[in-house]
Amino acid sequence: MIYAYYPGCSLHSTASEYDASIKVVFKKLGLELHEVPEWICCGTTPAHSASRVLSAALPIKNLSIVEKENFTEVAVPCAACFQSLKSAVYETGHDEVLKQQVDKVIDYSYQGKVRIRHPLDILTNDVGIDKIKTFVKKPLKGLKIVCYYGCLLTRPPKVVAFDNTEYPETMDEILKVCKADVLDWSYKTDCCGASFALSRTDSVLKLTNLILENAKAIGADAIAVACPLCHANLDTRQDDIYKKYNARYDLPVFYFSQLMGLALGADIKELGLKKHIVDPLKLFKNTGLI
Q1: Domain ranges of the chain
Q2: CATH class for domain 2-117?
Q3: Least confident range of 18-27, 191-200, 229-238, 260-269
Q4: 2-117 and 137-286 have identical folds
Q5: What is the pLDDT of residues 158-176, one digit of tens each?
Q6: Fold for domain 137-286?
Q7: What percentage of the chain has pLDDT greater than the value 70?
């Protein structure tokens, strides 16, 4: 199984551990990733705020590169990039004027031959839970996890068409087969504040505090995510939350691929686990995983 790979800006910078762990997991499962040549930023929130044409043209430009490379599927790990690409295809597919404007901007008429896939989808539906189970070398026994999908990965449902909108389970099923103790909880798709971390920091602290508070209350040892913005807000804001709310959580926040990679036998150095603000190594030592 071979896929084009669109990392997006975060996975080549602040979320490099997500990029590394996705590649480790795919390699161990025999999947090939070919990074899109000369890819550009998907535009994310700034482009959407500035121009409807720009917010569609940037993602479609990337998909056009994939299409020209004769790939029919592209793996997109970042939830914001995933939604941007999906939204651009949906918008241009339902607005012919916008489609013509985008074609003019990128000097190419995208034919829509590329299927946009999130790695959770690929792992669940192309590889399959039963096959993943056969690759597990180090079961995540004793590790109590809650899976946090955030608000972008499953919304809007008619655009992204991914998992169950209100109560997604693909990440849960993958980590369960890795033998983690995956807990049910109420904050799977609540917003963490996303990019408002800079402009509305107090709002982000309020939202992330609610998420962390609930995870801790139900007995979670850590949180698994699939979004660089979610990871940044939940991992880096815990000291600020302590100062504002006098609540100390010390909950490590992992990309699901880091936990999966550990279960598949990857070395912790390959998974970027030393980049975390809340140190996860103590948790792993306490549960006997390292």
Answers
A1: 2-117, 137-286
A2: mainly alpha
A3: 191-200
A4: no
A5: 999 999 999 999 999 999 9
A6: Rossmann fold (3.40.50)
A7: 100
